[in-house]
Amino acid sequence: MNFVLTEEQLAVRDAAREFAQTELLPGVIERDENQQFPAEQVKKMGELGFMGMMVDPKYNGGGMDTISYVLAMEEISKVDASCSVVMSVNNSLVCWGLEKFGTEEQKEKYLKRLASGEIIGAFCLSEPEAGSDATSQRTTAEDKGDYYLLNGTKNWITNGSSASVYIVMAQTDVEKKHRGINALIVEKGTEGFTVGPKENKLGIRGSDTHSLMFQDVKVPKENRIGEDGFGFSLAMQVLNGGRIGIASQALGIASGAMELAINYSKERKSFGKPICEHQGIQFKLSEMATNIEAARLLCLQAAAKKDRKEDFVKEAAMAKLFASKVAMETTVEAVQVHGGYGFVKEFHVERLMRDAKITQIYEGTSEIQKIVIAREILK
Ligand code: CAA
Ligand code: FAD
């Protein structure tokens, strides 16, 4: 496998790095503290083409490959994982699903505005009683002829209040189990659709996570994505790609923490020399660097397979499982390298440690990734 990056891929990485350092770094501590959604920053990400990176330019996308997406996600996540989760959901779960499975009318009406960043989207699968066990959907979409009547509650929805367009999974035919689930496009403001209060979270505090309530919401039939009963398959397929995005987010959180630890270890002195000259600190940095390189290769491998249109289910799950573990371990050690300074907000590593945890939970917990990997290797 050749991982020599092309000129275009390097340019995307450099543009994302420049953007993250100049536009995201100032204010990131305050946004986290105040749980402030990064609206301005997301708007700029749209202008720079980061909100629909892989979408065909004819639908206002960047026409880029998944490797470029991994590189951009890493750079943005090094600085602000609250921004990168907005980006990840919009790119992999919303735009990709619409482009691959939507009708031409849906692409014209929704995808063009989502890919340009004019509006953002949300992906709504999880429910109070259906998280890992995603086939147990309680939300119903009753077939009423030319529309569906949507009733139920979705939990933990990223971009819950900021999105304009929501892809909602709901059960139409219980007899058919997961093959009776549909994916419906619901617009914000539709009668009967309400957004619950914002969750007060440990990490990614800038992103807005909400419950969504649907009470007798009428969704026109033309808003169904794919054939009748295709919703669960759609959800699983977009999540395969989404897991590459979250793996790259975890990679970025880890590499951001390592960069901070390296810089700090060169400045901080103890026992008459910079702490980076103590072997105990060097060993921590060496472990971080090795794990991060391995995580990066797994992310790039999954992305390369997706770009070559090969099966990448196992590779995406492995990348997410491993990179999220590396993010957790690296950020804990980066705090340790900072000593007491690592425990306060100004030094950024405590935020990265808090942000790292979610990468082991959303888009399929680590336990679920292991189930996915086991099924693939035991096939
Ligand atoms: N890719 C494609 N299809 C898949 C798939 C995959 N990775 N995993 C399962 N499927 C298909 C199966 O082939 C099967 O389809 P058919 O019967 O039609 O062939 C169907 O889905 C059901 O699969 P299983 O019989 O294996 O179902 P299960 O109930 O035993 O397990 C599961 C399924 C893998 C555990 C699944 O429920 C799962 O992935 N759970 C985790 C849910 C998740 O990731 N949620 C994320 C929400 S979005 C989010 O979190 C966003 C964010 O934070 C930012
Ligand atoms: P549960 O499924 O109840 O799991 C509890 C524990 O049991 C976990 O450790 C799990 O791994 C373990 N477990 C469960 N089943 C098994 C098993 N078979 N074998 C071994 N262990 C098992 N969802 C969306 O649809 N859209 C979003 O935009 C979205 N954004 C999110 C943002 C945030 C900040 C959070 C916290 C969640 C978000 N989610 C979203 C939901 C997320 O995907 C779920 O939280 C996740 O899939 C786990 O589901 P659960 O919370 O119900 O945990």
From TrEMBL:
Superkingdom, taxonomy of origin: Bacteria
Residue ranges occupied by any Acyl-CoA dehydrogenase/oxidase N-terminal domain in the UniProt entry: 6-118
Leader sequence residues: none
Domain Acyl-CoA dehydrogenase/oxidase C-terminal: residue ranges: 231-378
Record's keyword annotation contains Membrane: no
Name listed for the protein in its UniProt record: Acyl-CoA dehydrogenase
Entry cofactors: FAD
Classification of source organism: Bacteria, Pseudomonadati, Bacteroidota, Cytophagia, Cytophagales
